[in-house]
């Protein structure tokens, strides 16, 4: 039996979960999800122009997600921590600021969607680059540009009469 306070990382299928727990998850794939207690959302005032409303309403959202303390599978954690992204701190915390929309709800949804995209993007294996030779045409072009550049530079020299 699942408790509401237990971290839920891998599940057999979403249909096996109680509806109360299911509503609190960010579904990453069929068997990987994030519980809402792992994500810290804070309402802050948005930057930029907006008149009096921007000074009164905290419509921007600051999302914090600690990779180390999350219930994500180890593969996801390792991939996220090895990702070179400015939103991931040295302490292993993902920080996302969403302020694109005027309402707090839309910014919250945007921040959660961006978190989901970041995790899914990091989980994708990188394609291995296959080394190829430059084509004959590209080699000819390169040598032609090189000789033209050399000629331009040689024209700058002092003229000896």
Automatic annotation (TrEMBL):
Protein name: Aminoacyl-tRNA hydrolase
MF (Gene Ontology): peptidyl-tRNA hydrolase activity; ribosome binding; translation release factor activity
Family, similarity comment: Belongs to the prokaryotic/mitochondrial release factor family.
Gene assigned in the entry: yaeJ
Keywords, comma-separated and alphabetical: Hydrolase
Coiled-coil segments: none
NCBIfam families documented for this protein: PRK09256.1
Originating organism: Neiella marina
Domain Prokaryotic-type class I peptide chain release factors: 45-61
Domain of life: Bacteria
Region entry Disordered, spans: 125-161
The keyword Hydrolase is annotated on this UniProt entry: yes
Biased composition (Basic residues): 127-147
Composition-biased stretches (Basic and acidic residues): 148-161
GO biological process, one term: rescue of stalled ribosome
Pfam families, alphabetized: RF-1
